[in-house]
Design brief:
It is a single chain. The chain is mostly helical. It folds into 3 domains: about 60 residues, no CATH class; about 80 residues, no CATH class; about 110 residues. About 65% of the residues lie in helices and about 5% in strands. The strands form 2 sheets. Strands 1-2 form a two-stranded antiparallel sheet. Strands 3-4 form a two-stranded antiparallel sheet. Strand 1 and strand 2 form a beta hairpin. Helix 8 runs parallel beside helix 10. It is globular, with a radius of gyration of 18 Å.
């Protein structure tokens, strides 16, 4: 996707997200999109909307009962903690991490578990819970054993997307190469089994296609890393950046549709630029 085209689409998303914030309670994806736009452009209009939205979110996030919704809120507050001095954010992160991790060892729903683990991995750097990282890694290993056997990947696109994202986050923290390679194997299985050629999208919801693009962006960034290329076994025909760009264009045709998830799409667009992909991950030497 050309940069001019991407910039045009991001501006359209920003306009709609700001308008939506005036019309109702903000969601985590909308606020995360605005947070990243503020960091990139330092817009006064975005800053005011973001400040208002975070205030509302801190008062209302507890209404979220679904695991994936809670995980989305946690990811938002983890990123907000890096730029906000609001003293309500750290205890909110701790409370959400506690609520999500309390379900571990009992929930075998791979999609929900993947989202929960991903969020808690990201929160491990700032939550007042020194054991959170190791517990999240242990739970990731348990869930992987449910969803994956060598040569066989179970589940559909939602499970693959969430688990691949968690694996990439774990790789970004631990630099354990098998995590990234398994994430790529999950994505390859999804491309084989869940691709709908006529639509140019995966055979799942538009929101999950946006999440899939974010995973493809991260894999594309890894493939551009010389150290990773030297250490990993790569699919010889993989071009995840081009795959992500094609899905973004296919999704653009749906932007005028009622209920189109603008904020998730906006996040996928923002992360498609090389300078922003992988920004929230920590790295180290490959192990």
């Amino acid at each position: 996707m050309e940069e001019l085209r991407r910039t045009e689409l991001v501006a359209r998303v920003e306009e709609r997200v700001l308008r939506g914030l005036d019309e109702g309670a903000p969601g985590p994806a909308a606020l995360l999109f605005l947070l990243r736009r503020y960091l990139a452009a330092d817009s006064l209009a975005v800053a005011k909307s973001l400040e208002y939205g975070l205030g509302v979110a801190l008062a209302q996030y507890g209404d979220a009962l679904q695991t994936i919704d809670r995980a989305d809120w946690l990811m938002l507050f983890v990123e907000a903690a890096r730029v906000s001095e609001d003293d309500r954010i750290p205890p909110t992160i701790a409370a959400l991490a506690d609520a999500l991790s309390a379900q571990w060892r009992t929930d075998d729903d791979v999609e929900q578990a993947g989202a929960s683990i991903d969020a808690c991995l990201r929160a491990s750097e700032c939550a007042a819970a020194p054991t959170l990282l190791q517990r999240a890694i242990d739970e990731l290993e348990r869930v992987v054993a449910i969803a994956y056997q060598p040569g066989r990947v179970s589940g559909g696109a939602p499970q693959h997307v969430r688990l691949a994202s968690a694996l990439l986050t774990a790789f970004g923290i631990t630099a354990r190469l098998p995590y990234a390679m398994l994430a790529e194997e999950l994505v390859r299985a999804m491309q084989r089994n869940n691709w709908d050629g006529p639509s140019g999208l995966f055979a799942t919801t538009i929101s999950l296609n946006c999440e899939a693009v974010r995973v493809l962006n991260r894999l594309g960034e890894l493939h551009r890393n010389a150290e990773y290329r030297a250490a990993a076994v790569l699919a010889p025909d993989a071009d995840y950046g081009s795959d992500a760009a094609a899905i973004l264009e296919a999704l653009a045709a749906h932007m005028s549709s009622f209920g189109f998830p603008c904020a998730p799409y906006g996040l996928a667009l923002l992360e498609h630029s090389p300078e922003s992909v992988g920004r929230t991950e920590r790295g180290g030497d490959l192990k």
